[in-house]
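Notes from the 1:1 (GR / supervisor)

We went over the backlog. Supervisor wanted to see one worked example end to end before approving the batch request, so GR pasted a single chain during the call. The sequence is below; no edits were made to it. Supervisor asked that the structure be written out right there so they could see what the output format looks like.
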Amino acid sequence: MFYFINEYILQKNSSVEHTAMNRVKLFNHYKRPAKIVTKTYDRLIHQTIKKFGVADNEIVNMFDFFQGVDGLSDEKVLHADDLHLPLESEVVVGANFSQVFDGDTPTSNVGFIPGTVGRVFYQEFFDGQGNVIETNLWDWRGFKSATQYFGQNGKLILQRYYTPAGKIVLEQFFVPDTNGNPLTSRITLLDYQGRGDLCFQNVDDLFAFFLAELS
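Structure output shown during the call:
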């Protein structure tokens, strides 16, 4: 297997990403198995690659790999009604997101994937003062991919990543950097293949481990 390593694949890419996509299609055309490897967490990557003619099995993302969804091609279109919101909730539907109220109190927002009609992308939850305390993140393929937790200052302190069945497989902890922005302080890979919990200082260290697992 040949692996072509990239940080990401975006809607608009540089020549580096375009070269990798053309190369992987060429290799597979001539029966030389190849995949693009990407590092960045991206819930829309399997929507993006379709626009460039890259198949789901021609790319492997690090987070997909550890979340057990590498090669998953099934898509479930999820709308706000599928989130089983409390029956007493009032939902105000907007173009980009819906607001959920309990009486006059906003309890959450349900955001939509850009360019779709109400396809769920995230759901953020508020405390009694209207501050975001937790956000669920949904993958393009229709499963809850991660949850973000925020501190009293509104800054990200923890992100958990799931398998499609809802099992937590990764925890990423954050501390403020010198500008007060979230900086990864530790990543824990939980109970990995019977080896117990594995800890990494940052995403680069996790990526090095991921590449070793691929090879």
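Supervisor's comment: The mean pLDDT is 93.
Batch request approved.
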